Task: structure prediction
Amino acid sequence: MKLYVSVDMEGITGLADYTYVTAGERNYEAARQTMTKEANTVIEQAVQSGASEILVNDSHSKMNNILFEELHEEANLISGDFKQFSMVHGLDNSFDGVCFLGYHSRASMPGVMSHSMSFTVKTMYLNDVEVGEIGMNAYVAGYHGVPVIMLAGDDGACREIEALIPGVVTAAVKQSISRSCVKTLHPKKARALLAEKTMEAVTNRKEIKPLTPPDNPILKMEFNNYGQAEWAALMPGVTIIEGTTMVEYKSKDMLEAFRAMLVMLELACQAKYC
Result:
């Protein structure tokens, strides 16, 4: 069995605000330790449950947060921030399942540090389905025919994926009190929960169906201000929906839609005085 693990940071146990997830802030180095330990818990349990190959993708910010020398030796790691498919780079149809670890809810929703890829984004839609990082990444997995079998993060992230994927296994390691305050499990209890849920997900993986994306998906992205939409619309094929800060892009498949999202985000971030 071959397993893919995408590890974000905002949904890791105990992390409550930007001081934990921003390099150079006072809580960041401790948070890296917790992030790495939780990845190791998932890897170890997956190995015990029959995984013969595990690929971990560091999926937060500059994507070099996991302490690679302390990562479980049975996993390979993708580390670094220029990736054509960002949080799901390296994922293809050779995998048997995907786990999302440390995930958070989408922009404009309750949840600790909720956002969608960038703070420029207010909402995103794939056809008529509102999505954030969870939805976009799960649809890429589905494009390859691979199911997302587990998500661990805050309670908002768990609710979000449960609405998208019937039967997906979730592990809520903390509850959001506000966008920068959580009620969290103790790390030891959180790791025990992660081990339990990883075993459940791997055992039941064949019962969970891939989230199949639509053919020729239409991607819509609503930005926080018009300047960001103007920058995003510099990309060929993108139009601004009149009277809104939302842009639209008609793509040939899910992979093109995903890469279009990344390009528009980079362009939108060029807008100043936000």
User: Anything to note?
Assistant: The chain has a mean pLDDT of 97. The CA atoms of residues 13 and 169 lie 17 Å apart. The two ends are 47 Å apart (CA to CA).
